[in-house]
Each structure stands twice: as C-alpha cells, then as structure tokens.
Amino acid sequence: MSDYTRAEVCAVAIAEAFRGDGEILVSPMGTLPLIGARLAKLTFSPDILLSDGVAALLATVPPVGAKGPPPVVEGWIPYRTVFDVVWSGRRHVMMGATQIDRFGNQNIACIGPFQKPKAQLLGVRGAPGNTINHATSYWIPNHSTKSFVAQVDVVSGVGYDRARALGPVASRFHGIRRVVSNLGVFDFATPEHAMRLASVHPGVSVDEVVQNTGFALMIPDPVPQTCVPSREELRLLREVIDPSGLGNKEVKA
Amino acid sequence: MTPAQVIGELRDGMTIGIGGWGSRRKPMALVREILRAPLKDLTVVSYGGPDVGLLCAAGKVKKVVYGFVSLDSIPLEPHFRAARQAGAVEAVELDEGMFQWGLYAASLRLPFLPTRAGLGSDVLKINPHLKLVKSPYDDGEELLAMPALTLDVALIHMNRADEAGNGQFLGPDPYFDDLFCMAATRRFMSCEKIIPTADLLREGCIHSLKINRMMVDGVVETPGGAHFTECPPDYGRDEAFQKEYAASAADPEQWRLFKAKYLDLASEDEYQKAVKAR
C-alpha cells in the first residue's frame, strides 16, 4: 500500500501543466483539474488567476466541494469577459475530452454522424475558440480505446495536424501543453507533434497504456515515472484543497 | 403584459432568441407559455438549457442554434439529446464565442464579425454556410466571418424591471441578454418583480441596469418565472425538480406523468401552484 492515491498523483501531474503560467486565467474543467490548478496556485504558480466557477476571481484558494470561510474576491469575470480573455490569449484551459486523437484533436460534441448522432454530448462549447487562441491541456479520467481514438467524430478542440494545415499565421496561438489521464501524462514534444507518452503513473505499465490507446503513441526509452506527490503537496491536497476527498471519487485506484 | 399576450406576438417559423445560460436565469414562464400555444417550426437561438429541451420535447422546434445545451449540474439535456439522436431538429452548432459574435453583429447591423474561433475545427464542416474573410490590411490574415444571428423575437428574464422596460440583473452574471434584445426585432422581458423606476437602485448598483427601455417592447411580471433554473439572489436552481425533470425524460410513461402534472396546465399560475404543492 502506497501512501498516496492515483488521484493525488493525477492532481500533481495536472498542477505541473500550469507550471510557469504566470499572470493568466487558468480555467480547469472537472474535479481533478480544479484540485490541480489550486495546488499549482498554492505552490509554484502563485500568480495564476482562478475563478469560483461562476463570475468571481478569487484571491484565496477555497477547498473544493466543502464549506470554508468566504473566499476573498479579487475581480469580476462574467462569461463575456471570459470570452474577451480567450481571444486575447491570456488563458490556459484544461478541458475534458470524450475522444482525443494522436494529434490532440478533441471531441465533446457528439458520437456518430453529426446530422443524426448516436449520442449527442455537450456541443463544441468553447473548444474551437479556446484551442486556436491560447494554451490548452486535457484531462481524461477514463483512459481507454474509446477515449484515445484513431479519429475523433467531431473536431471540437483543434489538434496539431489541423493547426499545421491552417498555416503559421492562423495557428500561431495554438498549443496543446499536455494530456493527463488516469494512466499517464502525454505531450506533443515530437517532430510531427504527435502524442508522446511523457510518463506513466506509479503502478501503471507502459503496456497497459499502449493496450488502452487506440493509436500508435510515441514511446521514449526509458519511459519516466510520473512524479509522486511530495509530503507538502499531500498536506495541501488533503487538508486545504480537497478535505472531503472528491478527487479520489473521480479516479479510483 | 401577460405571458399569453407576449407569446401571442409570436408566429410559426419565427427565429426566437432566449436569454440566460444553461440552467441559469432562463425566461421559463415564457417558454412554458410557448408550450401552451399552437406555435411550430421555430428556430431557437440559445446558450441552451431546459428551454431548448422543453421546446424540442413539445415538437415546437425546427432548428436549434447553440454552442451547448446543458442543465449545468446535470451536464447533458435529455430532451435535446433525444431530439438530436432522432434527427428531429436541424442543428447549427457554434463555438460559444462565435455565438456571441453573431448576436453582436446583428446588434450592430453588421453582416458579420471576424474571429479566429472556429478555424481548424469541424464547426466549418458541420456549418457549410460559414465563410472565411481575408483581412484587407497588410497582414492579410484569413479569419472566420461569423454571420449576424438576427432574431425575430428575444425573450429574457430579469430580477427586477420597471413598467417602461428598464431591466436589472441582481445575480453575478448578465450573460448575453442585452445582445439578444439588440439582435431582435421584437423584445420581451419577464421579471421576478416590477418595481417603480425610482426604486431601481435600491437593490443593485447602476451597473446592474443592463437592460434599458430602448431594448424592450414588453414587460411581464412572472414571480418564479425562471423556475427551475436559478435566478439568484431571488432563488437558486431547484435541483430536486430538475432531477425529476431529467429522470422523467428517460421514460415515456414517466414523461407523460411529468407533463400532466406540471406542463399541461392552463396557466403559469397553475404551474407555480403545482410546483409549490409537491
């Protein structure tokens, strides 16, 4: 029995995605992204701006899904201001993905043909505008051949092959930092910007990642292991950010 | 006005913009009034929530223009999903920011506004009517030309308003309700409470007066009129009711019961009574 959970490893890997982000709006979608972004703010990225998920920018870091003292509000960010920030580029979003392919094209719109889908999902939401305007990362808590696919059904978030086809001008603000799943961390640090296995989480084999991925990943040799949480990170996660353990409900193991 | 008088102004085939966002401050009393009317073939333009779901379930909709349709605390809208998966409605799915740009272009009487949003994504593939535009300046950059989303009618819900059509939001986000109004030929605002003009600054600061009477043709007082979506600070989302709504959508018999209990009623007053009685 290790003294940290898989969810806590994921939280630290997610936080690492925001390292060096400076004074920009970080928009995490999903429970562990919320936890990871708050961990980044409390440790190595104190300058990032985080909202309360409604319309307030918070100077303090409240616990997720638990009552704490009222947070300190440092600004107002209604949706139309969020859009302005998106188009100005001072933002890093971490979105989910029902499907993602080897160049980082993401689908959250629907499964099957668009005219009459097998499953209607959210819609493209802000993914097209986000990905063409500023830094993007993804969080996929259910890594499988159904989520890591050869081809996505509707390109909502733009991947590297699509960005390249647009040419250097239109794609100059595009960039996918990393993909964090329940099995590992992935980036696009390859000549073609094809997805690469950057690290496997402790307790996960490279084979398990390969078996659960519907396309050929670039695999470095050797494959590093994802950093495990430090004692201080565990304290922040358990006592300050996620005292009710919501992260462990999103990723079990 | 009354909800029935407002909806009496609508005609088959019209393009109706609905304010709010997801399951937040939606003009639900007016949406419920559309359900009672014989209207059909509507084009609904919305940052969609249960407004879109209910209108789809009632067969009122020919086309939906949206960036997303969601109940927020329940991510997917069951009736909208069913309509899409049956191929029952035409879908114009846009990036959320493009959607705003479309309303803004219509507000400013411009044919389009340029944006980078949408480039490289399948938004262009699933909307073959969208075109690109080249910057006439030295940069020569190619951008997406988001066409104006011109509306026949806008329906919005505010916390407070006066008789003249000045409207006030008291919650944290104005959403895009002002743009919906400015993009539309006819504009109707429901509100929790109509108050004297002189009282408009009693509950909110001057910045909360986002809607003014130039932007509105008719006002209707509908207490609880955003139910079951949230309308803070007057009330939060009725999560229990929303769960009942979403759960009933999964089963035709349950939906029939839900409809009989809450929707097949003669008026908004009866709806509010049925909600309170549960």
What is the element layout, followed by pairings?
The complex is a heterodimer of chains A (253) and B (278).
Chain A: H1 6-17, E1 25-28, H2 31-42, E2 50-51, E3 56-58, E4 73-76, H3 79-88, E5 91-95, E6 99-100, E7 106-107, E8 110-111, E9 119-120, H4 127-133, E10 135-140, H5 160-166, E11 175-181, E12 184-187, E13 196-200, H6 206-211, H7 231-241, H8 246-250
Parallel strand pairs in A: 1-5, 5-10, 10-11
Antiparallel strand pairs in A: 2-3, 3-4, 6-7, 8-9, 11-12, 12-13
Chain B: H1 3-7, E1 15-18, H2 28-36, E2 42-46, H3 50-57, E3 61-66, H4 78-85, E4 90-93, H5 96-107, E5 112-115, H6 123-126, E6 131-134, E7 142-147, E8 151-161, E9 167-168, H7 177-182, E10 184-194, H8 200-203, E11 218-221, H9 239-249, H10 252-263, H11 268-277
Parallel strand pairs in B: 1-2, 1-8, 2-3, 3-4, 8-10, 10-11
Antiparallel strand pairs in B: 5-7, 6-7, 8-9
Distinctive features:
heterodimer, A: 253 residues, alpha/beta, Glutaconate Coenzyme A-transferase, 6-stranded mixed beta sheet, 3-stranded antiparallel beta sheet, 13 strands, B: 278 residues, 11 helices, 32% helix, globular
Describe this structure in words.
The complex is a heterodimer of chains A (253) and B (278). Chain A is an alpha/beta fold. Chain A has a single domain, classed as Glutaconate Coenzyme A-transferase. Chain A is built from 8 helices and 13 strands. Chain A has helices at 6-17, 31-42, 79-88, 127-133, 160-166, 206-211, 231-241, 246-250, and strands at 25-28, 50-51, 56-58, 73-76, 91-95, 99-100, 106-107, 110-111, 119-120, 135-140, 175-181, 184-187, 196-200. In chain A, the strands form 4 sheets. A 6-stranded mixed β-sheet of chain A has the order 1-5-10-11-12-13, sandwiched between helices. In chain A, strands 2-3-4 form a 3-stranded antiparallel β-sheet. A two-stranded antiparallel sheet of chain A has the order 6-7. In chain A, strand 8 and strand 9 form a beta hairpin. The longest helix of chain A has 12 residues, at 6-17. The termini of chain A are close together. In chain A, 50% of the residues are buried. The model of chain A has no long low-confidence stretch (mean pLDDT 97). Chain B is α/β, with parallel strands linked by helices. Chain B has 2 domains: 3-93 and 150-241, 3-Layer(aba) Sandwich (Glutaconate Coenzyme A-transferase), CATH 3.40.1080; 111-147, no CATH class. Chain B is 32% helix and 22% strand. Chain B has helices at 3-7, 28-36, 50-57, 78-85, 96-107, 123-126, 177-182, 200-203, 239-249, 252-263, 268-277, and strands at 15-18, 42-46, 61-66, 90-93, 112-115, 131-134, 142-147, 151-161, 167-168, 184-194, 218-221. In chain B, the strands form 2 sheets. In chain B, strands 1, 2, 3, 4, 8, 9, 10 and 11 form an 8-stranded mixed β-sheet that branches. A 3-stranded antiparallel β-sheet of chain B has the order 5-7-6. In chain B, a hairpin with a 5-residue loop joins strand 8 (151-161) and strand 9 (167-168). In chain B, helix 2 runs parallel beside helix 3 and helix 9 (239-249) crosses helix 10. The longest helix of chain B has 12 residues, at 96-107. The A-B interface holds A 54-56, 76, 78-80, 83, 86-87, 109-110, 114-129, 131-133, 154-158, 162-163, 165-166, 169-171, 173-174 and B 21, 48, 66-70, 75-76, 80-81, 84-87, 91, 93-98, 100, 115-123, 125-126, 139, 141-142, 172-176.
